[in-house]
Amino acid sequence: MDRTLAADLARLPDLLEATRRTAADALAALDARPVVPRPPASPPHRPEPLPRHGSGTESALTAFADRWAPRLSASAGPRYLGFVTGGATPAALAGDWLTSVHDQNSNSALDGAGQDLERETVTWLRDLFGLSGAHTGTFVSGATMSNTTGLAIAREWLGERLGVSPSEDGAAALGPVRVLSGAPHSSIAKALSVLGLGRRSLVPVPTLPGREAVDPAALDRALAGTPGPAVVVANAGTVNTVDFDDLRAIAALRERHAFWLHTDAAFGAFAALSPDHAHLTAGLDASDSVCVDLHKWLNVPYDSAVQFTRRQDLQARVFQNAAAYLGPLGEHPDLVHLTPENSHRLRALAAWFTLRAYGREGHREIVERDIASARALGSSLEAAPVFRLLAPVRLNVVCFTLAEDPTPARLAALCEAAREEVFVTPTVYAGTPALRAAFSNWRTTQADVRRAAQALRTAAKGTA
Fold first, then answer.
1. CATH number of the domain enclosing 385
2. In this structure, are residues 303 and 282 in contact, taking their beta carbons and an 8 Å threshold?
3. 332: pLDDT confidence band, cut at 50, 70 and 90?
4. Quick one: where's region Disordered (predicted)?
């Protein structure tokens, strides 16, 4: 064994304790450190060369603390309001650490404990979101992979209706495909490209006036003009304004049209936890496939999402993997037969920990506190003459812009000026350059809202 590696093994408990102290110090400083630090005045133009002889874990910890940690954002903290980024609850962090400790690749029944843990966790999540036992689920890396997996199953369903198998014969066997949606997330077009259906198969359907929700009557007409079966991508929470399609009205169109219903509920599914907002997700259970991103509002570390479907048989037909060292498909396929990945870490453990630690009520409280925070920020910005809201605060995202001359350059300058106190991201809504603040972090309080609002007001005055 390499001498440095052997020395680290002998000191492993001490090194883990040093790592724990480093992590605890970083988390304790979240409130005081810049949300997004400014880049160094003279950024390095070349990476450091790989050392020929390593100096051990303790030296690596020191080098990381000196060179990289100061440049990392406080994205785990309460005022990082970009990209619908959650943090990691204490239990989720513990689960994620133990995921690395046990280092499982539980995709096969030959070593099945991890699969059983994932299935239990998926059952808890299915109940949390109001889905029925007809839905099975698997963990994937994020919403993009969840949407891709759901649409891959939809592609196979189209083939079933047309008497072909895209998984065997290729997507060309389907002929032209139409995927209808009102305000799809950008990952939908990306998934269609990956799946060989093509970005041009995505057909925009008019939305309701002043909304991002699809017009059911317009969708009805679009389906009537679609030859053969189609795919409908519904939204349970759009990116800019967290608008929800009427899922029950869309599902009712099946009485007249044949289509696969995929619902992108990346973070909107969590509205089901709040009694005051659960009506927004009514009809989610009618979906043939569902995307939910867990590293958003469940507050587990990044690289965690779940996909649900009613047709696991088609899912296994798409993703089955034939190798002598893998088990057969069977009635309950191993996870290796259900996603594009032959290998994945035990992502479910962090989710299992936070669900087990805080339960439905603990996560309901996080959701409702974030909703209240978004509404408070919306009210504060609306009261400031320099800002205007572009949409009502429906859930956890505030979509706003400058009241006068909201050019991309001025908005970028505002973001730059405020970045050490609060991080928001640019967007365009109804043709207007805008900003969006997304609340999904378990740490965020009303004090953080006041601090963020003041920073945005100050930055806006500085860009006038």
1. 3.90.1150.170
2. no
3. confident
4. 30-57
User: What are the C-alpha distances in Å from 52 to residues 48, 55, 62, 309, 429?
Assistant: 12, 10, 18, 49, 52
Helix ranges restricted to H, 384-428: 408-418
Flag the least confident range among 297-311, 320-334, 443-457: 320-334
Q: How many Å is the Cα radius of gyration of the chain?
A: 24
- Same structural domain, 238 and 291: yes
In the DSSP assignment, the letter for residue 423 is B
The phi and psi torsions of 207 (rounded to 5 degrees) equal: -100, 170
From 317, 344, 371, the end of a domain falls on 344
| Residue 43 clears pLDDT 80, i.e. is over it | no
Structure tokens given for 77: 């903290």
| CA–CA separation, 112 and 131 (whole Å) | 25
Are 117 and 335 contacting, i.e. CB atoms less than 8 angstroms apart? Answer: no
CA end-to-end distance (rounded Å), the chain? 63
Q: Would the pLDDT of 40 be above 70? A: yes
- Whole-Å CA distances, 411 to 193, 271, 331, 380: 32, 30, 54, 18
Q: How does strand 259-264 pair with strand 289-293?
A: parallel
Q: Which domain holds residue 310?
A: 104-344
For the stretch 118-144, what's the b/e string if a residue is b when 16 or more beta carbons lie within 10 angstroms of its beta carbon? Answer: bbebbebbbebbebeeebbbbbbbbbb
pLDDT above 80 (res 327): no
Q: Cα 302 vs. chain centroid, distance in angstroms? A: 9
Same domain, 94 and 108: no
Domain count, the chain: 2
Q: What token pair was written down for 14?
A: 């001490």
pLDDT in tens, 393-427: 999 999 999 999 999 999 999 999 999 999 999 99
